[in-house]
Design brief:
With 133 residues, the chain is an alpha/beta fold. It has 4 helices and 5 strands; from the N terminus they run βαββααβαβ. The chain is 35% helix and 26% strand.
Length: 133
């Protein structure tokens, strides 16, 4: 059985076009995840890709992440697939470089990856790079 969390976002919609899921969740119905059986494959495409919004609303984003952790940590999964986006700026008007990229939102993503590996075990992380000019 397959569970998709993040079924309304861009990545989640593309995943749904490629395969069928037995259970689908988003921020409106994530509380119902508790009713799913254990040992399903979990597909996580639930972290927003709107980095500009996240950067302006870090506390709200962190609360969203903690809410997702709260619900997924109650279950055991066969395999877990995390889909995550990374924005790459070719000609940044802010003159972003490798040093500047070590900012809070980037560090949060690394902590999420690390925490999920510990929490869920059998985890495959897929980073989707978005190149912006």
């Amino acid at each position: 059985m397959k569970i998709l969390i993040g079924n309304t976002g861009l990545i989640g919609k593309n995943l749904k076009d490629q395969q069928e899921f037995d259970y689908e969740f988003n921020s409106k119905n994530i509380n119902e995840l508790d009713q799913c059986p254990d040992n399903c494959d979990l597909y996580l495409s639930c972290l927003p890709a709107t980095k500009w919004y996240i950067n302006q609303n870090i506390e709200q984003d962190l609360n969203n992440i903690l809410n997702i952790f709260f619900h997924i940590s109650k279950k055991k999964y066969r395999k877990v697939y995390l889909f995550s986006t990374v924005d790459v700026y070719c000609n940044s008007p802010l003159h972003v470089n490798e040093i500047i990229l070590q900012t809070f939102p980037i560090l949060i993503m690394e902590v999420i990856d690390f925490y999920l590996k510990i929490l869920l075990g059998n985890l495959l992380i897929m980073k989707i790079f978005t190149f912006l000019d």
